[in-house]
Amino acid sequence: MKEDQIETGFRDVIADRLGYVLRRASGVMMGALGTALAAIPLRPVEATILILIGENTGCTQSEIGRVLAIKRANMVPLIADLLAKGLIEKRPVDGRSQALSLTPQGLVQRDAAEAIIHAHERRFEALLPPSKVAALRSALVRIAAEGDEEG
Amino acid sequence: MKEDQIETGFRDVIADRLGYVLRRASGVMMGALGTALAAIPLRPVEATILILIGENTGCTQSEIGRVLAIKRANMVPLIADLLAKGLIEKRPVDGRSQALSLTPQGLVQRDAAEAIIHAHERRFEALLPPSKVAALRSALVRIAAEGDEEG
DNA sequence: TATTGTTATACTCTATAACTATA
DNA sequence: TATAGTTATAGAGTATAACAATA
Q1: Cα distances (angstroms) measured from residue A6 to each of A10, B49, B144
Q2: How distant is the alpha carbon of residue B62 from its chain centre?
Q3: Where are the beta strands (DSSP E) in chain A?
Q4: Which of B14, B136, B143 faces A28 most closely, judged by CB atoms?
Q5: Is A139 within 8 Å of B128 when comparing Cβ atoms?
Q6: What is the pLDDT of residues A88-140, one digit of tens each?
Q7: Does the predicted model carry a pTM greater than 0.90?
């Protein structure tokens, strides 16, 4: 890193900032997950919603939005796409709420997504000393929790 | 966290995934930085570019784009905005390259941005045990470096 | 009154393709 | 041939406002 800076003559003074490396690391993991999930094909957010519905049969799209910090209005096209792909089903419970569940095809896709995500997680965990992985996770959870207090 | 899941009845099975907490933590820090920099007012990317130009007088916008992983085409409006705000200057070196530098007003804004970013970094570092901060940084750098190999 | 689902809309960020002028 | 800067454009992701139906 330092050698690169001397070679190119460019002083990358922000490379050691926590916020910056956090953003870059997040982008790298998200990009890699997107590439891995393209084999199914599902986007990371679609795979995540599928998994959450699988573990919470009968939940609503508003509940999922709250968990994932996605606004109600932005959940609409996401759920519509999964519905159009035949991976989930809607069933009215209220006059205003609709229970979500996985179709048989959705179950298959969910399992495939889980396998890909599991491999993806292991791949990146393997970059670090095993003893450091839990510390990284808890540090990130602590930082992420700082957002719940404000917004 | 576990207690929350039991209270709400919602099984948030992705909350412990590295990629997910990484994305959430990054969003929280970026959002907080955006809020803090609104006092100037500069966006995080503008403040970052200002700082890089200050440390690399005479560099080109293409060089900055390479460092920040921003495509040439997307650098154009960013540089144009900083130019319109009177914070930077362009001076032709080649027929095709233009050297960037800070104006006196840009220097003032750069210093203000540095102070805000410094306080922001310290605020989030203070959430963690001091001994864990360096480990977090190096883990994130290791993960971010995995992106340089692919794309 | 508050919530669910929805529509419409706008803004940011990111990506590609294509062009020019130059090295 | 490769690079710097630019234009146009398209796709995500995210934000707000407003509405109808329901609790």
Answers
A1: 7, 20, 20
A2: 17
A3: 88-92, 98-102
A4: B143
A5: yes
A6: 999 999 999 999 999 999 999 999 999 999 999 999 999 999 999 999 999 99
A7: yes
Cα(A74)–Cα(B113) distance, integer angstroms: 33
Q: Which of residues 111-150 of B touch strand C (CB under 7 A)?
A: none
The answer to whether A139 contacts B132, with C-beta atoms less than 8 Å apart, is yes
Nucleotides of chain C in contact with protein CB (under 7 A) are: 3-9, 12-18, 21-23
Residue A61 Cα, gap to closest chain B Cα (Å): 12
Residues A5, B8 contacting (CB under 8 angstroms): no
Query: The tokens of A40 are what?
Result: 């199914």
- Contact yes or no for B127/A7 (Cβ under 8 A): no
CB B18 within 8 A of CB B7: no
Sequence length of chain B is 151
